[in-house]
Design brief:
This protein is α+β, with helices and mostly antiparallel strands and about 400 residues long. Helices cover about 25% and strands about 15% of the residues. The protein has eleven helices and eleven strands.
């Protein structure tokens, strides 16, 4: 991987929860033209603002363009998460004391390596899936964001739903950050905490729940991470890395959980849309999308989760609200990720730009579940109160719903 292993950690023939998509979809089919279509995502729009003079990036000697790019993309520094496994093309510059930083919003992400040659960026295009870019970290009056389709060497695989996308991978790292052995997991909100965040720093509390973060093998011949209380209850990165060398001293557990959900949600939206445009059956993917967005299969938290960076508080304040002040961005963190288990990415451009047949199928299935018509075991995680609240919030805040939604509400 030459440019952007930063968000996925490198390609692995690992299985994700949910169905194995198998065959890769043809990215340059006439109905798709991924590499031939200019991006219309947050990063492409930033480049347009730079070209027209509507935006300007500022360079500093410590972080280069990082802070300025985050401001332009409206990405909060509280989203910072740090990965120390050597799984990037800039791996020679990454050590457990000098991890790679990732910052993200709903549909755009930025990767930063200390002394790295480039910033690494990815953004979800409304139709085309995730598009990848780099920005040279050198002071210039005319910074330029370069599209890097070579990133698809790692970012187009069965674990990205066979479309250009993102994933979060958990590995067993050694004391230098090298992944060891064959144990690895591609994780999302359906993954048990015990399999998450190997090779990542995690600040915050998981209570009594075990995870793989903050731990590495200590000597040759070991194959089990030393996971104990000190790796589960970490307030900041002092003692692990050089926190003054990053925008914040955090790698927030709640931010990690949120990013995991977003990756496969965006991948599923892309896949369903591509299948319809290619004239292939899309119904199974649309149904899987509904299950995923309603957090079917999410394991219950057995202890409250608490972050350290303020990400949870900022995130819960986002989003449109109904007349009762409720929002799909509100976090729970006691027994589940979201207070109202329905993906906030229903408000994203990729969602709104799904082909009409896909959107019709998804809205019909959503209505069947939320109205109580479908009470199958797959949605056992949703109580009647959950269904009613999500239905009411969507009717009050989501434009373009079919008329039968409002009739039921």
């Amino acid at each position: 991987m030459k440019y952007l292993a930063g968000f996925t950690l490198i390609f692995a023939a690992a299985a994700i929860a949910g169905h194995d998509t198998g065959e890769l979809l043809p990215i340059d089919h006439e109905a798709i033209r991924y590499t031939q279509t200019p991006g219309d995502d947050a990063v492409a729009r930033l480049q347009h603002r730079l070209d027209t003079g509507a935006a300007k990036l500022h360079f500093d000697t410590k972080f280069g363009f990082l802070a300025s790019v985050l401001t332009e993309l409206r990405i909060s520094t509280s989203s910072q998460i740090l990965v120390f496994s050597k799984t990037s093309f800039q791996s020679h510059k990454i050590l457990p004391r000098r991890p790679r930083a990732i910052y993200f919003g709903d549909t755009a992400m930025v990767g930063f390596v200390r002394t790295g040659d480039v910033l690494e960026l990815a953004a979800a295009d409304p139709r085309q899936g995730t598009i990848f870019y780099t920005l040279d970290q050198r002071d210039t009056a005319k910074p330029r964001l370069f599209r890097r389709d070579i990133c698809l060497q790692c970012h187009l695989s069965p674990v990205t739903q066979s479309v250009p996308g993102l994933m979060v991978r958990s590995v067993v790292p050694d004391w230098n950050g090298f992944p060891t052995g064959s144990t690895s997991f591609v994780t999302d909100h359906r993954s048990p905490l015990k399999d998450r965040w190997g090779g990542w720093y995690v600040t915050g509390s998981a209570g009594t729940q075990e995870h793989m973060g903050n731990a590495m093998l200590e000597r040759p011949g070991e194959d089990r991470l030393p996971v104990f209380d000190q790796t589960r209850q970490v307030k900041d990165l002092n003692g692990f890395s050089e926190p003054n060398e990053y925008l914040t001293p955090h790698s927030d557990i709640v931010a990690l959980m949120t990013l995991e959900h977003q990756t496969q949600m965006l991948n599923l939206i892309t896949r369903a849309g591509w299948e319809a445009r290619l004239g292939r059956p899309y119904e199974a993917t649309a149904d899987e999308l509904v299950e995923y967005m309603l957090f079917a299969g999410e394991p219950a938290l057995t202890s409250p989760v608490q972050g350290t960076s303020g990400f949870a508080e900022q995130f819960s304040k986002k989003g449109p609200r109904d007349s009762k002040g409720r929002s799909l961005y509100e976090l729970d963190l006691k027994s589940r990720l979201l207070r109202y288990p329905c993906s906030f990415l229903v408000y994203s451009d990729p969602w709104d730009n799904m082909p009409a047949p896909v959107k019709d199928r998804v809205y019909r299935r959503l209505w069947e579940v939320l109205s109580g018509e479908d009470r199958s075991e797959a949605f056992a995680n949703l109580t009647s109160d959950h269904r009613r609240a999500i239905l009411d919030i969507l009717v009050a805040t989501k434009k373009g719903l079919p008329s039968y939604w409002k009739a039921v509400s």
